[in-house]
């Protein structure tokens, strides 16, 4: 029996999503309070319409504002409706991934996948842990995944460690064609 190319992608999606979850679990954490060149990321949903928090530190009482900015920016980064230039700005070291982000935004998987932030915890002046679900075509595919948001130049961003983990998974599965990981991934971690 021959499957249509779209059917093959749909049938392969559960395996990719499962592998993605395992990869994000392994790569999503951080081993200290200092964000390294790589911190974390994953697929997502709605564009942020409000500006991100711009305070360089988290004074008492601002963690709610920081959590809201982290959630908005995390979801916007993975939303297919967010312009590429904004997505690049919402990723740690994003300029190093600009071409790849633009290329990936054209894939059918990218247009169907999104992230829904379910919680933000451990907020410091420079990083926070993000709990999120991966949603594909409106259906939850992975639940309660962990990632790291980093504060860079006053803006909360998706850490590049998790984004690099996603790229590695995509490369390994062949679901999305990636010939080589960006050089920034070799220093993310």
The beta-strand count equals 4
As a percent range, the share of strand residues is 15-25%
Count up the helices: 7
Structural class: alpha+beta
Low-confidence stretches: 3-60
Shape: globular
Main sheet makeup:
4 strands, antiparallel
Element-by-element helix/strand order:
HHHHHEEEEHH
Output the radius of gyration.
16 Å
Mean pLDDT: 72
Oligomer: single chain
Features:
7 helices, 4 strands, 189 residues, 39% helix, alpha+beta, single chain, disordered N terminus, four-stranded antiparallel sheet, 20% strand, globular
Notes on the protein architecture:
42% of the residues are buried. The chain has helices spanning 5-27, 63-77, 84-89, 98-104, 108-112, 160-173, 184-187; strands at 113-121, 127-136, 139-152, 155-158. Helix content is 39%, strand content 20%. The chain contains seven helices and four strands; from the N terminus they run αααααββββαα.
Write the topology of this structure.
Elements: H1 5-27, H2 63-77, H3 84-89, H4 98-104, H5 108-112, E1 113-121, E2 127-136, E3 139-152, E4 155-158, H6 160-173, H7 184-187
Antiparallel strand pairs: 1-2, 2-3, 3-4
